[in-house]
Amino acid sequence: MFSRYLMSCVALAGLLSASTLVAAPPDKFDPAGVGGGGAMYSPTINPHNGDEMYVACDMSLQFHTTDAGKNWEVMDFRDFKSGHDTAVRFTRDPMIRWAVNSKIEKQECTRPCRSTDGGKTWQFPPNDESGWPTFRQAYIMYNDYANPDRAMAVGDYRNLYTTFDGGKTWAIAYKTASDQGLHLAGAFYDGDTVYIGTNVGVFISKDGGKSFTADNTPGLPKGAIMSFAGAKTGGKIRFYAITHKGAWAGITGGDRWGFVGLNTLDVGDPSWVDHSSAFTDKDKPFFVKTDGTDIQTAYIAGGGANGKSGPTVHKTTDGGKTWTEVFLLEGNRNIICGYSGDKGDFAWSYGEYALGFDVCPGDSNRLIISDLGFAHISTDGGKTWRQVYTQPSDDRKPGPIPPKASYRSIGMDMTSIWNLDWFDDQNIFASATDIRGFRSADGGKTWSFDYVGHDLNTMYRIAQDKAKGIAYAATSSVHDMYNSTFLADARIDNGKGRLLYTTDKGKTWKLMKDFGAPLVWVALDPKRPERLYVSVVSSKTGGIFMTDNRSQLEKADWVQLAKPPRTQGHPFNVMALDDGSLVCTYSGRRDPREFTASSGVFLSTDDGKTWEDRSADGMKFWAADLLVDPNDKNQNTWLAGVYYAWGGATKSGGGASGLYRSRDRGRTWTQIAGNNLSTMSVLNVYSGAFRPNNTKEFYMTTEYDGVLWTPDITADRPEFKPVPAYRFAHPVRILFSPTNPNQMWVTNFGNGINVGMCK
């Protein structure tokens, strides 16, 4: 599919020229890259159509497939944004579905929602009058499959809310005083009798969920219920429960180590039955699931212990008396893999443990498991499994995985890509988080991990000297640099960072210098052939470093440039202008709870010996990329992305985020897109790009608003518009193919790479 798309792009490029272009963004984007690579949660399977599934992601993505994982689409962020517990749940009416959804205008909280058109649109409780607390988080939801109007959700951390009218109104059915909040481990509806398992016990409702009383049936080991599932065959109901040392609202599979026990209870029996002995020293279960109709068949999923690393699945067909492992990691015995697995480019230890697991309601043969990087499904009750994150034609049969093979994404991408670099029209390298990076040797049709020498968590940027056939890369053990969770010194200062170089287009990387701290930027100086700059991040040793004999490679001499005023070790962009001046940005810093005014834009006219502060007040707390406008030949016009610095920083201008422009090298700035402007109220802007064959056309990336564009960035007040075809909220950078200026590539904070064709 992607290769055909590339060929059509090339053909279209031949028909268009700059003189005939009508500025317009792509109306379609396709995924590129290897697929997979990040944490996935809360998978669910549609009982009306077992080929339809949803998978959530902590990067706000909700993935959706209707062909059993052969292709995935990302649900549009304008309709749906996900988190750990945003499972889409079904009802007997195929059109009615429930979920919790983070799509609240720039508010990072989830609320219950409902769809009545098969998931095309979603409705939230009306504010205030509904009974659901305004802008308070919903943690997890369960619903009554037989009654589409009935559901329950944990909200306000400690309260269980229920609705009986399709979400129009909500009322509190149960409250806990526990400091760990209320973890709703599972729910089972049997008409008006409702059973729930929680971290504070089992509760029963006889009125459909309006009120609950504690069930004190003995036999459960001391601890909280982590996962709870029920099934009914004929008139008999059986419950399965996994207990945990302590569960809390929002707990995930990463805390499987607290496993205490596995127990079953037949309703009416005097005590729970213990089935824990097979697991206490071997694997650590976290999830238990049934199909709701078969009391004999159940599955548990979790992770290995005592030297065994990887997601695990066990199955019982005798009501919990015996359990058989069915996800066989060693030798990939019953698993069709992608690039991850035994002997793969990434071992099972990368996925490590289950973060999500589901059994199709009414069909115990259909299963899906998700982990820290990948997803796999089974349609035969766990006898065999297949990966669902790369093209089916790239499947690796059970057995050893061919090393450094090529792969193609099918739309399930959930890791961060910081940059793309073309060494030539065929060789491209993607700088990535967690999976480090991957390369293409065929112009982006397929991708692989066919390289050596780069083994830190993240590659952030590559700088190329094509004339000399050498490129340099900034790498780090710290991911997500300068995003909200990596602004405090404590999260960064212990990190590692290496400057690498390659002379064979990214296939072999060698160490040029270990800086002992994360590297986030590298840049050449076009006027000084031997000069190279790097940005080193550390509150103690950080700053911009420079060498004037880069051709000496490992023996190059390095000096640290002077620290710009106000800064505290968080350098970001650095670039040399045509007249020999240097301009740089420093990004956000928190100490530890408040932003410090140590960010901004700085200019040096003496090779970094001194710096002038060229920052607007709004960018002194959390600046991002700086771009030099190619429409200004004198390089006096700059654009800067700025993030919202909350808390006390807002009193000093830190709340004025968006896109800023200066036409006098930073002496004065104008906010041309931002959260305090009447037109296109954008909260956070990261970066942007000028279309090469029409440089007035400008695209920018945002944290909450996806890709935005304007047909004329040179206007005094550019009009920015959304790019409707771009479905992910948080793109990072935009790049245009050097061989096809109409081909737009977008890297993302959590959604890999997408590519489209401008008009």
Chart the SSEs and their pairings.
Blueprint: H1 2-15, E1 29-32, E2 40-46, E3 49-57, E4 62-65, E5 73-74, E6 89-90, E7 97-101, E8 111-115, E9 138-143, E10 151-155, E11 159-163, E12 171-175, E13 184-190, E14 193-198, E15 201-205, E16 213-215, E17 224-233, E18 236-244, E19 259-266, E20 273-274, E21 283-289, E22 298-304, E23 311-316, E24 324-325, E25 335-336, H2 348-351, E26 356-360, E27 363-370, E28 375-378, E29 385-387, E30 406-407, E31 417-422, E32 428-432, E33 437-440, E34 447-448, E35 458-465, E36 470-476, H3 489-492, E37 497-502, E38 510-514, E39 519-524, E40 532-536, E41 543-547, E42 559-560, E43 571-576, E44 582-586, E45 600-604, E46 612-613, E47 623-628, E48 638-642, E49 658-662, E50 670-674, E51 685-691, E52 694-702, E53 707-710, E54 721-722, E55 731-737, E56 740-748, E57 753-757
Parallel strand pairs: 25-29
Antiparallel strand pairs: 1-57, 2-3, 3-4, 4-5, 6-7, 7-8, 9-10, 10-11, 11-12, 13-14, 14-15, 15-16, 17-18, 18-19, 19-20, 21-22, 22-23, 23-24, 26-27, 27-28, 28-29, 30-34, 31-32, 32-33, 35-36, 36-37, 37-38, 39-40, 40-41, 41-42, 43-44, 44-45, 45-46, 47-48, 48-49, 49-50, 51-52, 52-53, 53-54, 55-56, ...
- CATH domain class of the largest domain: Mainly Beta
Number of strands: 57
**Uncertain spans:** 1-21
State the share of residues found in helices, binned by percent. under 10%
Please state the second-level CATH architecture of the largest domain.
Answer: 7 Propeller
Tell me what the structure shows.
The chain contains three helices and 57 strands. Strand 52 (694-702) and strand 53 (707-710) form a beta hairpin. The relative contact order is 0.09. It has 759 residues and is mostly beta strands. It is globular, with a radius of gyration of 27 Å. The model is unreliable at 1-21 (pLDDT under 50). The chain starts with a helix and ends with a strand. The strands form 15 sheets. It has a five-stranded mixed β-sheet with strand order 25-29-28-27-26, with no helix packed on it. A four-stranded antiparallel β-sheet has the order 1-57-56-55, covered by helices on one side. The protein has two domains: 26-30 and 413-757, 7 Propeller (Methylamine Dehydrogenase, Chain H), CATH 2.130.10.10; 217-398, no CATH class.
